[in-house]
Amino acid sequence: MDHYTKFGVPNNFEELLPALKTQTKKWETVCYSGTKINNSAKISFYLSPKNNPYGNIILSPGLATNTDIDPLMKTLTFWALTHRYNVITFDTFLGDFYPNPSFEAAQRNTYAEFTTLLEHCIKFTEQYFINQPNILIAHSAGATGTIDALNNIVGQGEKITIDSVLLFAPWVCEDWHREFKQIVYKRCQSNNYDNPHNILPITNVFDMLATNSARYVSIMPEFFEDMHQIPFAPDLMNKWEIYTTFVCGEKDKKSPVDQIKTRYDELQKQPNKKLFKFVVMQNVKHSFLNFYENNKTVIDLIKSQRRRIRG
C-alpha cells in the first residue's frame, strides 16, 4: 500500500478520513432540481484545517456511487483537506442506495433530472466561490452530467463562476452501456427478480463492503439513451471560458481514449482552444483505482488550475 504515500496521503488514510470529515465539516444542505420531479442532492462543505486555504475543490461522482464510498473521491477528499484546500461535495440521487430495487425511484432518476440538479448545485455554491480559486472535479456520469449542466448555464446566457474543471472519463460509450444493461438484466434473472418494467437496479461493490449487504440505485434504461441523445456541443463548451482538462485512463474501455481525443480535437478548432487540455494516465482503467501511479500528473493538474482566465 506504499502507493498512497507517493500521492501524499498515508497508507491508512481510509481509516482516518471519517474523523477528518467530521472535524472539518462546516455545513450540509439539500439542493433540489426545481422541476416537477424535484429530485435532490446533498451538498457538503469541509473547511481546510490549515489557515489561508488555496481554494475549493468540488467533487461530483458518477453513477451508483457517492463521495463516501468512491475510491477516487475519497482519495481526493483526504489529499485536498490535508493540502490546504476546502472541499465541497455533490452527492446526488445517483448515489442514494436502497435495500430493494424500485420502479418508482427509477422513474424519478432521469438523466434530465441529474443534469438539472448539477446545474442547481453549481449555482447554489457560487456564493462560496468569491475571492477563492475553485476546481470542479467530476468522474464518469458525473463528468458527463457536469458538461451538460455547464452547457445549460452558458446556453442561458449566464457566466460560469468556477475557475476550472477536471473531467475524469466523461462520455461513456454506447457499446459499454448496452453491455452493462445486459449484465444487470442477467443478474436480475439469476436473483429471480421479477422485472416487468426492465429497470436497471445497480449495485456498487464498495457500498456492499461498507454495509455488508446488497443495495441498489435504480434507473430506467432510458437514462443512458437520454445521455447519448444530447449532442456534443463544442460551441457551448467554448463559452465556458475556464480551464478544462479531460483526464483519460489508458486502459479505460468504458470511456475510450480515442473517443475523448476525437472530441478534444474538435474543441481545438474553437477560439478558446488554449483553455482545453487532454491528459492520458498510464495503466489506469475507468475506476481510476490506481491513479496514484500518476500522482505527479494529478497533483500538477490540480495545482496548475488555480486561476481562471477571462478574455
Could you characterize the architecture of this molecule?
This protein is of the alpha/beta class. 39% of the residues lie in helices and 19% in strands. The strands form two sheets. The chain has an eight-stranded mixed β-sheet with strand order 1-2-4-3-5-6-9-10, sandwiched between helices. It has a two-stranded antiparallel ribbon with strand order 7-8. The model has no long low-confidence stretch (mean pLDDT 92).
What's the short story on this structure?
Helix content is 39%, strand content 19%.
Write the SSE topology.
Elements: H1 3-7, H2 13-24, E1 25-32, E2 40-46, E3 55-60, H3 71-81, E4 85-92, H4 103-108, H5 111-124, E5 134-139, H6 141-155, E6 164-168, H7 174-190, E7 200-202, H8 205-211, E8 217-219, H9 222-229, H10 234-238, E9 243-249, H11 257-267, E10 276-281, H12 295-304
Parallel strand pairs: 3-4, 3-5, 5-6, 6-9, 9-10
Antiparallel strand pairs: 1-2, 2-4, 7-8
Number of strands: 10
Helix content: 25-40%
CATH architecture: 3-Layer(aba) Sandwich
| Straight-line distance between termini | 45 Å
Let me know the largest β-sheet: 8 strands, mixed
Sum up the structure in keywords.
311 residues, alpha/beta
